[in-house]
Amino acid sequence: MADEEIIARRPLKPETQHPETQHSHALRVEAESSPGPAPTGPAGQTRLARPAPTLARALRLLGLTTILPGRAQVMAGPRGLGRLALCVTLLCWLLLAAGAVLWAVHRGAFLNLLLAPGWSQALSACLLILAAGWALLYAATLRAARPARMTRARGGVVVLVTLLLAGLTSGSLVFASTALQTGSSALDKIFHAGVRAEPTDGRYNILLLGGDGGSDRTGRRPDSISVLSINAATGDSATFSIPRNLQNAPFPTSSPMASVYPNGYNCGDECIINSLYGLVNEKYASLYPGAADAGAQAMMETASEILGIRVSNYILVDMGGFSDVVDAMGGVTVNSGGWVPITSGEIPNTYPVRHYPPSEWMPPGELRLDGYHAEWFARSREFTSDYNRIKRQQCIQESMIRQLTPLRIATRFGALAEAGAKLMESNIDRGQVGYFADALLASRGKQQSKLTIGEPDFPQLFSTYPNFDEVRQRVKKTLADQGGSSSASGGGLSLPVAMSLASVSALPQGTATALPAKSTAPDGTKITPEYLTRLAREQDDATLAEILSDNGTCSPSSSRRP
């Protein structure tokens, strides 16, 4: 009987054991190596025991649950849940690998698939399911680790690490799902079933309008007007800025407005181009049946005729929404080269219209601007010119795109998406949003050009008495210097702009250095806000204009802090 008992206790050789027997034997050895007598069953035989609940084993199981979800459950149970989790993990890795291949081969198609309404909703739901499943695996791992049978300190460490890892993993998936839903909802508000953009002569031409509709204004006036043109094959881009006060803007013969203004928009000083948008929406919207925004349609037509290129899509950025975006990203920092006033209200019964002294003066140097001040930095033109304002707009937009880091996007995504929905309007087709995003990435770092249809590229009075034949020749030369047109088609190519700040990708890159500024007035007086306010109160516009002549000088700041 003793010999039989010894034989019963003797383990089989490893090579003759069944895998399950090997696993049981490993657990038995670990149990026998733990302090205290080995548990015994009937007739004194050793009973299979669970591994001792040590801190090292618990951390090992938690690490496996984080790196390879399901593996810890296959080892410590429940094995059915572990096998299912491993299959899901393998499937996720395969999908991620396929996504990486698609990103490398056709990034635009990948982004379009990711941002498509149906796919984004399905992916968002899958992320929530995965988050719940991962949390369940951590709960199972905590149960297998048995922290209650450890010392209080070690058990507390296990529970704390479990909660931390579950929060980082499942919490990240929940955040990604929420961000995807928020972003998709914002895109749905901005882009609809619009006009699918196709390249003309190998280029996409997008009209960018900066709308300025405030409580002190009648309707919306696009004070910032430009066309972004991107080579569909190379990503090289050019920006053509059109001053707000351009007169005699022509219409193509195919435009409904050509019958209203056969000789162009030429009724004098009242007919500057930025008033056309509101005029069409107010009086001539019926000429554009089916157009979501008749004013924007008319602006595209006249921009096409001015520049001699076909403009088929537009993005309208509302300055009120711009302020919200700056606040959502935590502010923006710029290096300003001159004093920039914040204009006060109009003085009643004055002609020409005058304003009360500015309510505030933004000094030269590094400025950390919130949304309110960033909006005024971009729109202020009191005592200076539209061209200085255009330079500041380009500068602040470039600063925003530089400071909108991936970390800032991730931590402020919800607020940015909500603000972006207020910021933009567009006739871009919703199904092409992914290609927009791809083109924004592709155009960064490529050859970039700009031309302003006014100072400094044309004479001072050119906006009042424009020569459009000369403009078209200059536009043609600018594009030709980039390699001209391309034979590329629109089938699988990228659309140029992904968001309201897309125009920044086409702007020349500035330097991030401090800029010199005037410290004294022409008469030697030290320039202070109080001195500038006194000049405004005395209506000494000439001195103010000389002092503020450099307030269009600006460069993006290297600072990452808002």
Question: What is the fold's blueprint, element by element?
Answer:
Layout: H1 2-9, H2 19-33, H3 55-67, H4 71-76, H5 79-105, H6 107-115, H7 117-145, H8 152-190, E1 203-211, E2 222-231, E3 237-242, H9 257-260, H10 276-283, H11 294-307, E4 313-318, H12 319-328, E5 332-336, E6 340-342, E7 360-362, E8 365-369, H13 371-379, H14 386-403, H15 406-411, H16 413-423, E9 424-426, H17 433-443, E10 448-452, H18 468-481, H19 529-537, H20 541-547, E11 554-556
Average pLDDT level: 79
* Rg, Å, rounded: 33 Å
Could you give the count of β-strands?
11
Distance between the termini: 84 Å
Residues in helix, %: 40-55%
**Multimeric state of these chains?**
single chain
What strand order characterises the main sheet? 9-4-1-2-3-10
Tertiary shape: elongated
Uncertain segments: 1-48, 214-218, 484-514
What class do helices, strands and sheet pairing give?
Answer: alpha+beta
Compute the number of helices: 20
Strand content: 5-15%
Largest sheet features: 6 strands, mixed
Provide structural commentary.
The chain has 20 helices and eleven strands. The chain has helices spanning 2-9, 19-33, 55-67, 71-76, 79-105, 107-115, 117-145, 152-190, 257-260, 276-283, 294-307, 319-328, 371-379, 386-403, 406-411, 413-423, 433-443, 468-481, 529-537, 541-547, and strands at residues 203-211, 222-231, 237-242, 313-318, 332-336, 340-342, 360-362, 365-369, 424-426, 448-452, 554-556. Strands 9-4-1-2-3-10 form a six-stranded mixed sheet. It has a three-stranded antiparallel sheet with strand order 8-5-11. Strands 6-7 form a two-stranded antiparallel sheet. The protein is elongated, with a radius of gyration of 33 Å. The relative contact order is 0.12. Mean pLDDT is 79; it is low at 1-48, 214-218 and 484-514.
